[in-house]
Design goal:
Helix content: 40-55%
Radius of gyration: 17 Å
Number of domains: 2
CATH superfamily of the largest domain: HAD superfamily/HAD-like
CATH topology of the largest domain: Rossmann fold
CATH architecture of the largest domain: 3-Layer(aba) Sandwich
Order of helices and strands: EHHHHHHEHEHHEHEEH
Structural class: alpha/beta
Largest sheet: 6 strands, parallel
Number of strands: 6
Number of helices: 11
């Protein structure tokens, strides 16, 4: 079957239940209170997390900056034990990937995204993966959506973008994409809204 539509789908807050991740509180839990000011400066002023998500720091550099002794072990512990795959995702993806092209569009540290998609056996579902840490662009920057269109060789009108952030959806709307809010966080949105993957699958049928 020819796949005429492209589904662009977010990771955190959609595929992974934790919409904001959990890494900053995870870090504060793993260091003594005497380190809190240093960590606060690293996250808020030095913006090391944002830099890692834009590929300006590797996972190794990012976690060494925070003074973790074993960056690889820390990454794996966090991703395996502090994030939750939505239990409905695989059934949804196995059905939808046969009818639409599916592209991951995620703000993430490059190595984290690679680990997560491999660990949860997601890679077969995706025709393409656009990850901020690899392309050096972050949502809601319009350029990351344009990058996705270029890589997928498609037009905005043929795309449906699913995200848990209204701010990100607005940019996709401006480009001409159909948009759906995956409502993990109770945001107000006047457009299409779903609460789970069953509802998302039902809604996507009207776009085919």
């Amino acid at each position: 079957m020819e796949k005429n539509k492209v589904l662009l789908i977010d990771m955190y807050g959609v595929i992974i239940k934790e919409s904001k991740g959990y890494f900053i509180p995870y870090t504060f839990q793993h260091f003594p209170e005497a380190e809190y000011q240093r960590l606060t400066t690293a996250f808020k002023e030095d913006r090391v997390f944002s830099k890692a998500q834009k590929g300006e720091l590797s996972n190794q550099e990012f976690l060494e900056y925070l003074e973790y002794e074993n960056p690889r072990e820390t990454m794996e512990d966090y991703l395996k034990n502090y994030l939750t795959l939505d239990e409905q995702f695989r059934d949804f993806a196995s059905h939808i990937s046969g009818r639409m092209k599916m592209c991951l569009l995620s703000n993430d540290v490059a190595e984290w995204s690679e680990f997560l998609t491999d660990y949860y056996y997601m890679n077969p579902y995706f025709d393409e993966k656009i990850v901020s840490g690899e392309v050096h662009l972050r949502k809601p920057d319009r350029a990351i959506f344009e990058c996705a269109l270029e890589k997928l060789k498609c037009k905005a009108k043929d795309c449906i973008f699913v995200d848990n952030s209204v701010k990100n959806l607005r940019v996709a709307e401006e480009l001409g994409m159909e948009t759906i809010l995956f409502n993990r966080d109770g945001e107000e949105y006047e457009g299409n809204v779903v609460n789970n993957f069953v509802e998302l699958g039902e809604m996507l049928r009207k776009f085919q």
